[in-house]
Amino acid sequence: MSDIERIVCKLLTPLQPILCFCPAGGADGSEVPPPQNVITKTLNTNYTLSWDWPPGAAGTHAVTFTTQYVPRYQLKFKKKKTNWITACNQTSHRSCDLTRFNLHYLGIFVLQVRATVDGQHSEWAQTEFCPDKEAALGPPSNVTLAPAGSDLDVVVTDPLTSNNTSMREHVPNLYYHVQYWERQADGQAKRLRINTTMVTLPGLKAWTWYCVRVQSRDDFYSKTSDFTVPHCMQTEGSIPWWNIFLYFLGSLLFFFLIVLGTIYGLFRCCKTMKDVLNPSDQMPSHLKKYLCSSPGSDIPRLLTPDSESELLCEGVTICPPPTVLEIHIPPAEELAAPPSGLEPNSSVRHSRQDSSSSGDSGVYSSGGGSSSSSALKHLSAVRHNHMGSDDIFKGLLDPERVNLREMTAHLKSQPEVADEGVVDVCV
């Protein structure tokens, strides 16, 4: 066919069926090849028409496809014009989804598809499609296991259509093939056929894991679906007595540890609070009388900035108690006998020297005995060191003369004070 004839055919396209026949041509003038391997991919009521086409047949030009369908019974009326329904028009994809057109499941349809390259069309590639016969049957949409003592209840949900309705509406003889096996065993799986959506698996062991999978089937056209993903669950049963006893001991030990820990924590908290609020180290009594509001109170008293103690005292120094010397003087009978070398009526003259001149007292004897002088000097030192002893000697020592016999008798009647320092004075 020459180029002039092709131009004439394009101009006369509306009259093409009557005037002439224009074969389709590719980019190089050859005919456009029709789609090949036209098949339908189905699952329940989901239908997709797919095909193949040589990738290099269009050259540098783009290729598009048009898909149409019609019920097959309309083709029998040759006198009546066939009303083809376009599903996909001028699409670049090599497939067309027919699900949205809700093709009747029991109907028979004729599907056709053609390719278009640079305005040139290929021949129609046709195929027949019957959903009831060719549509694949899908597996159950859901499988649920529930323990029933030592058995298992299996609940199966029917396959769903594209409108989320049960496929049992289109396949009334739908049934299921159930396989179950022990999970840790390598034995052959057991099979069970059910026509309902719920079944109890019999003959199972207690406290054992079992796995279950289900397949949909229809014997009219020998349709079988894929198996579902295995679902596993452990069976139940009566609990042994030793198991109950162990659970009881475990729970008892658990609650005992909780109670013991709670009591110990409360005890530690109370002890800490007691040590903070009432410490075991008590305040010394000589400080307590200054810090407490009353002598019998244990509550410290806060010192104000203008308190008398703070203004008068710069610090407190704790000194040990002074040493009290004990004086032992022989009895008066022994002092009555004068020592050798002294006259019986000798007297002792005691003169108190002025404190500004010597700072001490002297004892003088007419006989000049060394033992009497030493005793009187020691008594004078005790008088200066202890205020309590000074009161005793005020009434006994006369500034001019003192009779040793009278002084001894007076000192003997005074109570003796026990102390570490003991000095014996014999006159």
From TrEMBL:
UniProt region (Disordered), positions on chain: 335-370
Keyword terms, alphabetized: Membrane, Transmembrane, Transmembrane helix
PROSITE patterns, A to Z: FN3
Membrane in keyword set: yes
A GO term for molecular function: interferon receptor activity
Source taxon at top rank: Eukaryota
Listed CDD domains: FN3
InterPro entries: FN3_dom, FN3_sf, Ig-like_fold, Interferon/interleukin_rcp_dom, Type-II_Cytokine-TF_Rcpt
Residue ranges of every copy of the Fibronectin type-III domain listed in the record: 139-238
Pfam families: Interfer-bind (PF09294), Tissue_fac (PF01108)
Amino acid composition bias (Low complexity), ranges on this chain: 354-364
GO cellular component entries: plasma membrane
Protein name: Fibronectin type-III domain-containing protein
Native species: Astatotilapia calliptera
